[in-house]
Each structure stands twice: as C-alpha cells, then as structure tokens.
Write a structure and sequence with these properties.
Number of helices: 11
Strand content: 25-35%
Mean pLDDT: 95
Shape: elongated
Bound molecules: zinc ion
Low-confidence stretches: 1-6
Structural class: alpha+beta
Largest sheet: 8 strands, mixed
Length: 605
Amino acid sequence: MALGQAAGWQQSIKYDMDVHLDVNTHILSGEQRVSYTNNSPDTLKKLFIHLYFNAFKPGSMMDVSCRSTENLIVGKSRSGAAVTDFDNRFKKRIADMQPAEEGYCHVTQFTVAGKQQKITEQETILVVELDKPLLPGGTLQYQLAFKEQVPKLSRRSGRDSDEGIAYSMGQWYPKLAEYDQEGWHADDYISREFYGVWGDYKVNITLDKKYKLGATGVLQNAAEIGWGYDKEGTPLKPVNGNLRTWKFAAKNVHDFVWGADPDYKHITRKTTNGPLFHFIYKVDSTQENKWQLVADTCAIIYPYMAKTFGPYPYPCYSVIQGGGGGTEYPMATMVRNNSFETIVHEFCHSWYQMMMGSNENAYAWLDEGFADYAEAKVLAWLRKNDFFEGAEEYRSYFMLARSPFNEPMSTPANFFETNLAYNVNSYYKGAVFLRQLGYIVGEPVMDEILLEYYHEWRFKHPTPADFTRVAEKVSGMELKWYKDLMLYTTKLSDYAIDSLWERNDSTLIRVRNLGDFPMPIDVSLQFKDGSKALHYIPTNLTFAAKTTDAPSASPFVTHQPWGFVYPTYELAVPGKLTNIVEIEIDPTGRLADFDRKNNKLTLNW
Ligand SMILES: [Zn+2]
C-alpha cells in the first residue's frame, strides 16, 4: 500500500486467529496463521514477536521499573502532600501477584511450511530464527500456537477490573514487531505503548456463551450473534452448547483489542458521513443517562473532527468499558468509565496513532501530544470556549522544566528516568509543540498543516521530520530549528521588556532575550485613547513572516526579523511614549515563555 510513496516502503501483514478463552481458568489458547510481506530491500533472517502478557509477573522488567517509582518523590500536591512518580493507572501491584493472578504468553509452536523454527523467549520478546531467510519482496506464511494466562488487571489489560469488567484484552496476542527504515523495533514491554505493522486482522474468539464482546473491527457473524450488532436493541441469540464464537475482522489496522463481560450493554450511534459508534459498557442504572449523553455527544462532534483533522476512514468505532484508564486501539478504545474528555481524547488517537502509526516508543509525543491538542480543540469547539485561554499544557511543561527531572522530549519512551518526565514530555510538551507552532505560523496555517499531514502521511508511519516538513511546505517557513530545539534540548524561551525611550516622533521598545530558545515575538500595545496595535517581530530562523493569525492578533505590523544571536531588539513604533499605557509580549499566551512576569508593562502617566 505504501510502496512507491513518500515513506519509501513499509511491511504488511495479515493475521488470521482462532482463540479460545476458558473463563474458569483464564487460560487462553490460540492459533495464528500469518502472512507477512517483506517490502523492505533487506533480507530478514530473524523475526521479533511481542509477548506482552509476560510483563505481568513479579520480577519482570515492568514490575521492577514500576516499583522504582513508588518511593521517588517528584513533587507536591496542592495540599502540600508528597507526590510520588508511581503511575496510578497500575491497578494492581505486579509484585503482589499470586501465581494464579500472573500473566504469561508462550508460543508453543512456530512453523513455516510445517517445519518448526528456532524460537527463544526473552521475557516480552520472542526471537524467531528462520530456517530460510525472508527475501526482499517475499511473503512468509507462518503458523503459531500460543497459550496464555490472562493476568489480574494491572495496567491496560487483564481480568477483573475495579469496575467489574471480566476481560480487558489489550496487547494480548503474539504480535510481530515492526521492521522499518531503522530496522527491527523489538522494544521490551516495560510500560509504554506500541508500534505495529499495518495489516488485516481476522479474529475468531470462542468463549462461554454468556459473555458479550466489543472489539476492533466489524463483527462478521452479526446475524448469528444479534445483541445490537445486527440491529439496534436485539437480544443475544440462543446457541447450542455452552460456547459461542465471535468473528471480528478489521482492515488496515495495526492492532486488535477486545473486551468481554456477561453484563455488558450495547448501544450505537450513527454519525453524518462517518462511522457507526458502538458503546459497550457494564449495565448500571446510575450511569445509564451519562452513557446515553456521551453517545449523543460523540455523534455531534464527529463532523467537526472530520472537517478539522480529516475524515475517519473505518466503518465503525467501539468505546468499550474496561482497562485501567483510557487506552487507544485501532477502531476502538478501552475506557475505565464514561468520562467524556477521556473518550474524546481516545477517539482523537484514531488520527494520531491509529491512522499515523508513528513509532510510539521513539516519538510518544506525536501520538499523545497531538491527541491532547486535538482533544482541546474538540472540547473548545463543543463548549464554545476559547481554545487559547488558560492552556494547562504550558503550566505542566514549565513545572517539569523547573524540576530536577527534566529530560529532552526525544528520549526513547522506555528510557525516561521518571514517569513524570515521560508524561509531561509526551502529553504536554507535545501539545505545546503544536500550540506554539500555531503562534509561529499563524492559526489558520496551523489548521491547514494538520489537514495536509493527514492527506500526506496517514497509514505511513510519519516521523517528527515528516511532520515538520509538512509544516514547512504549508507555511513557507523554515522550521527544522524549531523541531530540533523542542525535541533534542531542554532550552526555554524567556523574553522581557527591557527599556523604553522616545526618539523624534517614535517610541522605542527594547525587548531582551533572556532565554536560550529563540522565537518570533508578538508585542501588543494599548494606547491612552483606547486603541490597540500589534507588532510582530519574526525570527530570522524562519526566513518568512506569518501573514495571518488569530485570535485578536490581526491586523498586525510586521517588523524586520530578529537575528537570534542578538540579545536585544529595538522595536520602533510611531507616536509618543506617553500615549502608551500598556505593552505586552505575547498577549495570546501561545509562546512558551518561561517567565511571564517580565512580559508586561503598565504605564501610569
Ligand atoms: Zn492518549
């Protein structure tokens, strides 16, 4: 699908799986028939396969890494209590798991053309040494059998969640690692999320007939199952024997999730020119109205999202109650409860991760930061709030910058020293990257960049350089400096009003750069007669100036660019100094200015 496109090449895969879950023992056994096409120019002698459930046992790397965060104090709460680095989304300490509560996933057989291949398990990664290498352009058919125990829910997946969901099945099956221009991505499962090969999934799940399912994809045997999958409101159909098989299929996705519970309820919503939404949640009369409202609201926001981020390309999307927080998957999300904000955030991941499929271990911010930004845009539109006002992301970013825990955003996800640094970088600094980019290029251009990114890069695993290149082409500005400083450094901007004086009929305002992260500068002036003006100093680094902006920033007067090595800039504005009553650097608050106290000057003449 991507051959000959800008990404050059990418691998492709087809999974055909039959799994059986015993709901008494929580043992799942399954078979995979996989067809893997090597579109790379390389000969592959090995394969790497993720076995995520092996993380959920005492002493695993996930357990040790999670325990190391329990006593590390990274801040104080509003009440002054110490805040540790522990990720509260861990619902059960892995260290406390009894053997029956642990997870495991073992591949018991791995064959190519009926011949067993050499396999070695290294905790959450299975290494397969192929008898015959997979040549460039070749397709490998392999078959594997696996057996796993579904762990007690700790983080993201497992059984018996706090909300009483029986099975939350995310990152649950042997999944081939991605091979791209950088080679294999055999990342251990320590706590971060995933990167996968796009392909087609057919998954047949057999379990006790009382259980009801939500999953990635479209239910293929809806007529046989009923339960709202054939028509809204139909009951679960009777079946002979104790077991029932649910057959799901999804095209062009890079993962597959499912949830199962005997007490699930299923409602749907249609959207205008968009997907059918499924909401699958635990029957609870106290929550019913909330779920109905959330479902209605999802249908309302979809047209705005399609217009702003590009149309959703799949036929349906399932919001499945389960997991330990909110986690995104292709064509589905697993959410702990009906928090509308979380559901919007997870649905935004359908664009920024499920359609882009960026390497989340390398660039978590392309996924979390973008989803955070998109969520804020959707919520501001829905609630008619000002998108620019009081953006929390800046506060979190500065909080980390002031702490001793700061690390560059480019740190690979598994290697951040703290959850704090990972979270703030990937969610908040990632969102600041986009909000501040809007300040540099102008908001209408920022909106165009997002749409162009969708058109150019969906289904192709873009990198930060690919996104930045889109931003450059759409804006006509040079922007690599911005990407590089944001990613590879912890540099910060701090601009200040330094001094003022009059010369002839002009006022001179000296602006000083106290930080080490150069940026273009908006300066607003307020005059005695109540009028206002906006003066814009481009940076030399962009080799172009923004021509349009919002909010309240236009019209503006564009000045000569500021060569970034100069510590000060003299801004000349017409009129006497005593006409000015207020001067402010960055009145829209989009510049990530570390110290805003020196940004504003009020003059009492
Ligand atoms: Zn997210």
